[in-house]
Design a protein that fits this description.
Layout (H helix, E strand, L loop, with lengths): L1 E6 L7 H12 L5 E5 L17 H12 L2 E5 L9 H10 L11 E6 L7 H11 L15 E3 L15 H21 L3
Parallel strand pairs: 1-2, 1-3, 3-4, 4-5
Bound molecules: flavin mononucleotide.
Flavin mononucleotide (FMN) binds next to helix 1.
Length: 183
């Protein structure tokens, strides 16, 4: 199974990027996770959506090829960051590559409940007609809180409970994606 991981932070030391890279490596036996960051994605502009810049075409093509998407979102000012909204706006238009493609949302934060509001807003947007991405009913939120205490300096997760939680969640998501594909 091929999954794209879309990271909503362009910061070099991003915890969400760290989480995405960890999931890619740790669960490589379950799926191939292609981690995408958004620093080279231009601002969405309806004037050019049909003749989009190369960076947009490449980004959409990588999402289109994938069986599913895992979103890794920080929380900025009580919602998801603008870079993520920008990416969603591109994905929601013209060929609408997200429609029918399953999603899972994760978020890492130094606070206990950081990303809960951002994740709620992201799930709302996943229901919008241009995205229309199925996700697990009653989806619980994959919040990795106090993240700075759970990863070591090499990006390795040191918290056994979080590792076990991610293991269960990714198993359930793989099963969900297979069901969506009629397998
Ligand atoms: C502009 C800005 C707004 C933020 N707003 C929130 C917020 O509303 N809630 C929260 O829990 N953390 C907030 N934070 C803290 C971020 O969650 C924290 O910086 C996090 O590490 C960002 O994710 P990253 O490590 O993947 O870059 C904010 C940070 C920035 C820079």
């Amino acid at each position: 199974m091929k999954i794209v991981g879309i990271v909503g932070s362009v910061r070099k030391q991003s915890f969400n990027k760290m989480l995405a890279n960890y999931v890619a490596t740790r669960f490589a036996d379950k799926f191939e996770l292609d981690v995408l960051t958004l620093e080279d994605l231009p601002l969405y502009n309806q004037d050019i959506e049909n003749e989009a810049p190369q960076a947009v075409k490449q980004f959409k093509a990588r999402v289109a090829e994938a069986d599913a998407v895992i979103w890794f979102t920080p929380e900025y000012n009580g919602t998801m960051p603008g870079v993520l909204v920008n990416a969603i706006d591109w994905l929601s238009r013209v060929d609408k590559v997200m429609v029918g493609k399953p999603s899972l949302v994760m978020g890492a934060s130094m606070g206990a409940l950081g990303t809960v509001k951002a994740q709620g807003h992201l799930y709302d947007v996943l229901r919008s007609p241009g995205i229309d991405s199925p996700f697990l009913a009653g989806s619980y939120q994959v919040v990795v809180g106090s993240v700075h205490t759970k990863f070591d300096e090499n990006g390795q997760l040191t918290d056994a409970a979080t590792e076990q939680f991610l293991h269960v969640v990714t198993d359930q998501f793989v099963t969900f994606v297979q069901k969506q594909q009629g397998k």
